[in-house]
Amino acid sequence: MSLSKSATVGFRGIEARTVEAADALSTFSYECEESVKVAMHSCEEKWPLPSNCQLESATAARSDRDYLRAILVRASSIMREKENQQVKITEVKAYALQQPLESSSFAFSQTWVNTRQTTIVVVATDEGIEGCGEAFGPAKTIARLIETAFAPLMVGQDPFNTEPIWDSIYRPHRHNSQKGILCEALSAVDIALWDIKGKATGQPVYNLLGGAFRNRAHAYATGLYRPQGADPKVALIEEALGYKKDGFFAMKYKMGTVSMEKDLDILGAIRDAIGWDLTLLVDANCAYDASDAMWLSQQMEEMNVYWFEEPLPPEDLDGYAELKNSTTIKIVAGECEATRFGFRELIGRRCVDILQPDVCICGGITEFQKIVAMASAANTAVIPHVWGTNVAIAAALHCYAAIPNIPGKINPPEPFFEFDRSPNPLREGATHEKFVAKESYIEIPNTPGLGVTVNKEFLEANSRQG
Fold it and tell me: Going by C-beta distance under 8 Å and a sequence separation of 6 or more, which residues neighbour residue 165?
């Protein structure tokens, strides 16, 4: 690295061996020496040394070598002082957001959704840098857990210590909280810490994860839930045609709110309406046993359904393995699972074709990366599950960017990205930035951190306490 480039990143890495470094630098050109002077001036302005720091060797230097040696000694000292002043977490605040859907209520196989809720976390530091994260699940419970149990463990900690902080929260509770609410809450604070790390280093989060394999996401529309107060077949055909008009390459139908025969009738009508050139996905949200799912898969193969998501309860791993081996449709699951420990069985027993960890459920970005590594070792594809506000979308986009091509090849197919289009009055208002799918693609933020800033006025106005 040239010294002119070093000036842009500081003098990190120039530590105790400044004398040896100066000996080597003394052979450099005058232009290089000028670069050091510019960098040093920048250091003096940004990080002034205490008044008792004497640098007589610098003012009395009689040769370029001595001069450069003095500069490097001073730069090393400044950087060591700066590094010893670690960033500290000063506050962890959780917002339990909730809004009724009223006439926009919809159903999936397990329940009617009459209210949208989520938890947004904002972690503040003594450097003025804030990070945001999001948790899937019961908002008021998760917010209280974060502020009463997690915050005391986190305040005063270095936000760069994502692994130790994650462990300090998860480990004491693993005997009763290996997944579920605790992992959902942990996901939110972990995402916020990665946001801080990105902002502090001036890097988008995907760079901290090893770099981006792609800079845009191939988005499919999640929708086609059972609507309230309307004929499902008529309403869902109209909705599907809307997604086609908007340019989506794929869409997902929610199965399991009516009989299997009625579902197949609606699904066939949607296929006929949108044509055979678009990709059709199906999600049952754990509605069936293995035998019913096998029968449905046989029928859906004739409709060219690409994947069958969560056909079985997450505990039925044997059923998943049987189903996967019985159909040409890809079997997809994982949104209900958490941590690398939970995903170990799904991966090791080859229960699914595609894993769907949700970064707001599985334990955050820290754990998402470990799940991806395990899946990669087993040659199992990963596509994130996403169902939250723009904070969740941003976190998932960065994780998506860093997922390697599984399997790898010269011209790999683009992994899908879930873009929830169901009614959600919290989605857009949570951040100042918006995500838009243009011709089925979403640009991945390339600004520091997650690339979004929370709208605190909106969070305060829509938060529920208690």
Answer: 153, 154, 157, 159, 189, 190, 193
- Percent share of the chain, pLDDT over 70: 81
CATH among 3.30.70.100, 3.10.20.30, 3.40.50.1100, 3.20.20.120 for 206-454:
3.20.20.120
Q: CA 119, 120, 121: angle at the middle one, nearest 5?
A: 120
The CA distance from 109 to 463, in Å, is 28
What is the rounded distance in angstroms from the CA atom of residue 160 to the CA atom of residue 88? 9
Q: Give CA–CA dist 133/151, Å, rounded.
A: 14
Cβ contacts of 303 within 8 Å, gap of 6 or more: 267, 268, 271, 280
Residues 6+ apart with CB under 8 A from 53: 77
Hey, which residues are catalytic here? 385
Q: Do domains 89-202 and 206-454 have the same CATH topology?
A: no
Is the CB of residue 338 less than 8 Å from the CB of residue 180?
yes
**How far is 354 from 349, CA to CA, in rounded Å?**
13
Task: Please provide the CATH number assigned to the domain covering 89-202.
Answer: 3.30.390.10
Residue pair 220/248 in contact by the 8 Å Cβ criterion:
yes
Q: What is the mean pLDDT of residues 159-178?
A: 94
* Cβ-proximal residues to 251 (8 Å cutoff; 6+ apart), any chain: 220, 221, 222, 223, 224, 240, 243, 244, 274, 278, 279, 280, 281
- Which amino acid, 315? E
pLDDT tens per residue, range 240-256: 999 999 999 999 999 99
**How does pLDDT run across 414-456, given as a tens digit for each residue?**
999 999 999 999 999 999 999 999 999 999 999 999 999 999 9
Closest to 205 in 3D by CA, of 454, 449, 451, 453: 449
Tokens in use for 437? 């799918």
The answer to whether the peptide bond before residue 407 is cis (omega within 30 degrees of 0) is yes
Length of the chain, in residues: 466
Query: What number of CA atoms fall less than 13 Å from residue 191's CA on the CB side?
Result: 37
Taking the C-alpha atoms of residue 374 and residue 368, their distance in angstroms, rounded to an integer, is 10
What mean pLDDT comes out for the span 356-383?
98
| Cα distance from N-terminal residue to C-terminal residue, the chain | 55
Helix (H) or strand (E) holding 302: none
The model's pLDDT over 84-107, given as tens digits with 9 standing for 90+, comes to 668 999 999 999 999 999 899 999
Residue 285 structure tokens: 């949200």
CA–CA dist 209, 444 (Å, integer): 14
Domain boundaries, the chain: 3-84, 89-202, 206-454
